[in-house]
Amino acid sequence: MFDLDSITDSAAQSDALENVVMGLIINAGQARSLAYKALKSAKTGDFVQADELMAQSRLALNEAHLVQTQLIEADQGEGKTKVTLVLVHAQDHLMNAMLARELIVELIELHQKMH
Question: Is 15 a known ligand-binding residue?
Answer without folding.
Answer: no
